[in-house]
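BUG: 3D viewer hangs when loading the predicted structure for this chain

Environment: internal workstation, default settings.
Expected: structure renders.
Actual: progress bar stalls at 90%.

Input used:
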Amino acid sequence: MTSNVIEVMERYFFLQNNRTVMKKIHAFAGGALAVVALIIVLAITTQGNPAGGNVTKTLHVSGYGEITDQPDEALIRISVITQALNANDAVSLNAEKMNDVIEGIKALGIKEEDIKTTGYSVYPRYTYPENGEPRIVGYEARNTIEVRTNDFSLIGKIIDTATERGANSIEGIDFHFSREKYDRLYNQALEIAVKNAQKKAETIAETAGLGTIYPVKIEVQEYYYPLPVPRPMTAIAEKATTPVIPGEEKVSARVSIVYGFM
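Structure tokens produced before the viewer hung:
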């Protein structure tokens, strides 16, 4: 009986000791994981800093770049306006004249895909008697096309041909960059803008004795492909057969850069 009691007591103390040891092991393992997690957090915090420490000071600068070049595309807007006593006659006459205009322009070497309709309307014409109700006296049809070309020597010929074949309104000419050329010029302007900002930062750092600086954030001002710039037709109409000089257009870019230093 006595031996049985002693055996039970020995097993109890053995289990208690084992539980204590296991608790210590678990506590050690948890501490080790916490240390590893702390090391990872510190590593992430210092990542991206050449000096291995947190960025405590920053310098904000902006940069601007600009490129000037000649546009490489022109858009000529041409309209045919016809009037008749009824709408059908106005539409038929307009179609006949516009088809003749388009055929003449295509004969100059302009591709069909470079000619598109940008506006079409038919509406009544009214007379307004002094002592009476307005009444319809006829109809007017207007058809406007847009002709695209990168051969500026053809602009005068396009206008001449169109007016000779029935066009009676030249709405204007827009000079602009093609998308491909604009993207190329913008990238050049962007490079200039970044260098401009970098030069400013280096000058400030050297003058103020800031030491080594390094970029930590760069923001580029979003750009949008510009709409064509309309040009008045007065001078062009006077010299319809002479080459048209488009002048130059600007493409610009802006950046904002944040530099860090210790």
